[in-house]
């Protein structure tokens, strides 16, 4: 068995290689198709705060917040699932509200405060929701988990803030911290492995602590 | 995504003046629908004007007892506003029946009105679509049409308008306020805001180039029981197959409009006159001019039954 360092290929290395190839292909295509009507686009500067740190980037206008986090700031905890706002894997918290980072242009976040899964807690010092996901096994493959956790943290905040949902019985009354409420509000986060019931257990535990 | 230039507008007047006389320009706010379509190269603007800093994010009382909702008020903020929940419950209910929590946090009031159809043939760039590519044909007619429109459609397009919010706005007689580059403003009743597809389904609203929605105004509250009932393929986070927005009074009179059936929120005032006679009479009048396909004929019965459920809920 070969143990040489040169032959060690990490999963991340392979993925980055794939990304680089895609980037080259997409850079070449406008030139090769000779579309003269395309505008000359200068990079745009962006200054924002990510996980408490001030960051500055020069970005192509097309870069989404998701790609800025993953490819430009190397914060790969946030995941790209569908890239169309349907799966929720890319969920991050911006100015206290969860959003789909794939459906938001990075340059539109000038001055914003972004929190990703890396900013919620660390392996040594986990956010209560991260700890509860570990305790209740709120995942299998783990790909949707960063989005699930960012969403779950925000869902409890949204219920506390009294924002109604589709299952709220009386929208003029206080909103209850119930399983039905949590389930409905998590519908924008898809888990292919089907860890939903354990995710709900994790959320219920944290909700119990904050209630 | 095609390349585009980008700039930020500081006020509505600044935004429309930046857009004036330019081709292929779009305003962007929440971006949840526009960016999705830009990734698929269905929308291909060469310039984006970011209007998110134009300050239109307030909900204010109007002089005649209604509310003026800024175009940038998010779907979440609108649904959660205590005045909306108390006096315009059908609107709050419609908003939380749509999309996901993440999307509602970004999606705006103005953008929600202007969102494009989710017709699968509009989304699939390999398919003929008169809305996406004028005069290319309609693959939906004769195609898989169970989700598509039954009334107000044409030989060129059977797409539906996907918004839940707009259906409630239609029942509430909302008025869309806009600003033009020359400084003029317009107040467009929502009943006159959308265009039926006819032979030109790519024209969806009466908005002029560079005209921007600044607010949506609600008339003073009309009381009654507010209900939004949505039928869809799964219990959450799906577009309507049929939806009913209704405001019903104790004497049995009321208003209602339907989503999921037509290229715009579908309301027929003559059908409302028949509400005291029951769901069957009212739904039949609402859909008198329907031209369903074999694949979506079921929606006629489903609309009647959904309305019946709404009337039963109002009585309970």
TrEMBL record, chain A:
Domain 2Fe-2S ferredoxin-type positions: 44-120
Key words of the record: 2Fe-2S, Iron, Iron-sulfur, Metal-binding, Oxidoreductase, Periplasm, Signal
PROSITE patterns per UniProt: 2FE2S_FER_1, 2FE2S_FER_2, TAT
InterPro entries linked to this entry: 2Fe-2S-bd, 2Fe-2S-bd_dom_sf, 2Fe-2S_ferredoxin-like_sf, 2Fe-2S_ferredoxin-type, 2Fe2S_fd_BS, Aldehyde_Oxdr_Iron-Sulfur, Beta-grasp_dom_sf, TAT_signal
Annotated catalysed reactions: an aldehyde + A + H2O = a carboxylate + AH2 + H(+)
GO function terms (MF aspect): 2 iron, 2 sulfur cluster binding; carboxylate reductase activity; metal ion binding
Oxidoreductase recorded as keyword: yes
UniProt keyword annotation of Translocase present: no
The enzyme's E.C. designation: 1.2.99.6
Superkingdom per UniProt: Bacteria
Subcellular location as annotated: Periplasm
GO cellular component, one term: periplasmic space
Subunit note: Heterotrimer composed of PaoA, PaoB and PaoC.
Role according to the record: Oxidizes aldehydes to the corresponding carboxylic acids with a preference for aromatic aldehydes. It might play a role in the detoxification of aldehydes to avoid cell damage.
Protein name stated in the entry: Aldehyde oxidoreductase iron-sulfur-binding subunit PaoA
Organism listed in the record: Henriciella algicola
Automatic annotation (TrEMBL), chain B:
Residues making up the signal peptide according to the UniProt record: none
Domain FAD-binding PCMH-type: 1-223
GO-annotated molecular function: FAD binding; oxidoreductase activity
Pfam family, one: FAD_binding_5
Top-rank taxon, per record: Bacteria
SUPFAM superfamilies given in the database record: CO dehydrogenase flavoprotein C-terminal domain-like, FAD-binding/transporter-associated domain-like
UniProtKB keywords: FAD, Flavoprotein
Official protein name in the record: Xanthine dehydrogenase family protein subunit M
Species: Henriciella algicola
């Amino acid at each position: 068995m070969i143990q040489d360092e040169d032959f060690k290929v990490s999963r991340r290395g392979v993925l980055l290689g794939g990304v680089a190839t895609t980037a080259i292909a997409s850079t070449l295509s406008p030139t090769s198709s000779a579309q003269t009507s395309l505008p000359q686009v200068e990079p745009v500067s962006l200054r924002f705060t990510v996980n408490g740190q001030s960051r500055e980037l020069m970005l192509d206008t097309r870069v989404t917040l998701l790609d800025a986090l993953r490819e430009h700031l190397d914060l790969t905890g946030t995941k790209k699932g569908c890239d169309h706002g349907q799966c929720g894997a890319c969920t991050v918290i911006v100015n206290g509200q969860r959003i789909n980072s794939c459906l938001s242009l990075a340059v539109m976040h000038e001055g914003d405060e972004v929190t990703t899964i890396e900013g919620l807690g660390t392996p040594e010092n986990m956010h209560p929701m991260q700890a509860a996901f570990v305790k209740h096994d709120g995942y299998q493959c783990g790909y949707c988990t960063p989005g699930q956790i960012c969403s779950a943290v925000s869902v409890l905040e949204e219920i506390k803030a009294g924002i109604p949902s589709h299952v709220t019985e009386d929208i003029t009354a206080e909103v209850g911290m119930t399983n039905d409420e949590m389930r409905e509000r998590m519908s924008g986060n898809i888990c292919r492995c089907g860890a939903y019931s354990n995710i709900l257990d994790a959320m219920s535990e944290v909700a119990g602590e904050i209630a | 995504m095609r390349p585009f230039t980008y700039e930020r507008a500081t006020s509505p007047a600044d935004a429309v003046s930046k857009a004036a006389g330019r081709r292929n320009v779009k305003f962007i706010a929440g971006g949840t629908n526009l960016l999705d379509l830009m990734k698929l190269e269905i929308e291909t603007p060469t310039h984006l004007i970011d209007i998110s800093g134009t300050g239109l994010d307030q909900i204010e009382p109007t002089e005649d007892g209604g509310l003026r909702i800024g175009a940038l008020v998010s779907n979440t903020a609108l649904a959660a506003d205590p005045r909306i929940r108390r006096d315009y419950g059908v609107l709050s209910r419609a908003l939380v029946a749509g999309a996901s929590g993440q999307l509602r946090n970004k999606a705006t009031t103005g953008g929600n009105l202007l969102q494009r159809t989710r017709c699968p043939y509009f989304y699939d760039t390999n398919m003929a679509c008169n809305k996406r590519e004028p005069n290319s044909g309609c693959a939906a007619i004769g195609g898989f049409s169970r989700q598509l429109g039954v009334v107000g459609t044409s030989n060129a397009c059977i797409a539906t308008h996907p918004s839940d919010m707009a259906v409630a706005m239609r029942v509430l007689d909302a008025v869309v306020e806009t600003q033009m580059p020359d400084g003029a403003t317009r107040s467009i009743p929502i009943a006159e805001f959308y265009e039926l597809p006819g032979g030109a389904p790519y024209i969806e609203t009466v908005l002029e180039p560079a005209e921007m929605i600044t607010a949506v105004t609600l008339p003073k509250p009309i009381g009654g029981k507010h209900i939004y009932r949505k039928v869809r393929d799964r219990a959450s986070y799906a577009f309507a197959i049929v939806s009913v927005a209704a405001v019903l009074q104790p004497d049995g009179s009321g208003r209602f409009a339907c989503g999921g059936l037509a290229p715009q929120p579908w309301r027929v005032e003559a059908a409302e006159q028949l509400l005291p006679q029951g769901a069957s009479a009212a739904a039949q009048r609402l859909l008198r001019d329907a031209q369903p396909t074999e694949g979506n004929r079921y929606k006629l019965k489903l609309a009647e039954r959904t309305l019946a459920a709404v009337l039963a809920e109002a009585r309970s």
